[in-house]
Specification:
The chain has one domain (28-200): Endonuclease Chain A (Endonuclease, Chain A), CATH 3.30.870.10. Helices cover 31% and strands 25% of the residues. Helix 1 links the parallel strand 1 and strand 2 (32-38). The chain has 208 residues and is of the alpha/beta class. Helix 3 (72-79) packs parallel to helix 5. The chain has helices spanning 21-25, 44-55, 72-79, 95-98, 100-110, 158-169, 179-186, 194-197; strands at 11-16, 32-38, 58-64, 84-92, 115-118, 124-128, 133-138, 149-155. An eight-stranded mixed sheet has the order 1-2-8-7-6-3-4-5, with helices on both faces.
C-alpha cells in the first residue's frame, strides 16, 4: 500500500532523551513528528500512558510479539486504565499458549473481537479520539530496557492511516486457529516464495 508523503506542515523534531517518556514527548500537537533515541529508560507502555495524559480518553491499539512474565504487570496496568475506551491487541499467534490468561483478561475488558492473532514482531501503538490520531513505534518492548532504543511519535498522516487499514483487514481468528491461519491472515506469503518460508516451519534448532 503506497502512501503519499507526510504534509509539508508536519513539525519534525529529534531528541536524545535521558529522561522520562513525558519529558521526551513534550507537548502532543496536531501534525507533530518526533524521533527520539533513548537509553531504554522508558517502555512503550510508559509512552502510551504519557500520551493519554494529554489526549484524554481514547481508543488504543497495541502491536507486540509476546508478553514476557515480567511485562504482565505492565499490561495489567494498561488494561486497568479507564482512559482506554476501546482496546485492540495485535499479537503473535504463539502468545496464545504462553499468555492465555492475559489474553482472556484483555478480551474480558474489551470484547471477544479485541485480539488479532498474527505472525508479528512489530512494536506499534495507536491512540485515537476526536482530536488526535497518534502513532507510536519503536524498538522498545512493554517494559523498560537499559540499552539504546529508538522511538517515533507522529500525529495524523498516511502512516497512521496505513496501520488502521491493516488492523481493519486482519481477520478475527479463533483460539483453535492453526499457525498457518495466522500466516495467511498476516499475508506473509505475498512477500516470500513458499520455499523461503520452509526454514521457519517445524521445531527451531538453535546453534550453541
Amino acid at each position: 500500500m503506497a502512501r503519499s508523503a507526510a504534509p509539508s506542515t508536519r513539525r519534525a523534531q529529534a531528541a536524545e532523551s535521558f529522561k522520562t517518556a513525558a519529558e521526551c514527548i513534550g507537548t502532543v500537537e496536531p501534525g507533530m513528528a518526533l524521533f527520539a533515541l533513548t537509553r531504554g529508560q522508558f517502555s512503550m507502555i510508559d509512552a502510551i500512558l504519557a500520551c493519554l495524559d494529554q489526549t484524554g480518553p481514547a481508543e488504543l491499539s497495541l502491536w507486540t510479539w509476546t508478553v514476557a512474565e515480567y511485562e504482565i504487570q505492565c499490561m495489567d496496568r494498561l488494561r486497568r486504565d479507564e482512559r482506554v475506551t476501546a482496546g485492540t491487541l495485535v499479537i503473535d499467534q504463539g502468545a496464545r499458549r504462553k499468555n492465555a490468561a492475559l489474553l482472556r483478561q484483555w478480551k474480558d475488558a474489551y470484547g471477544e473481537d479485541s485480539v488479532r492473532y498474527t505472525v508479528n514482531h512489530a512494536k506499534i501503538a495507536t491512540i485515537k479520539n476526536e482530536r488526535f490520531r497518534l502513532l507510536l513505534r519503536g524498538s522498545m518492548n512493554l517494559n523498560y530496557n537499559p540499552r539504546f532504543e529508538q522511538f517515533d511519535l507522529t500525529e495524523g498522516g498516511p502512516d497512521f492511516d496505513l496501520i488502521k487499514e491493516v488492523e481493519a483487514e486482519l481477520p478475527i481468528l479463533p483460539e483453535t486457529a492453526k499457525k498457518e491461519d495466522a500466516y495467511r491472515a498476516s499475508r506473509v506469503g505475498e512477500a516470500f516464495q513458499a520455499d523461503q518460508l520452509e526454514m521457519f516451519t517445524g521445531v527451531k534448532v538453535w546453534a550453541k
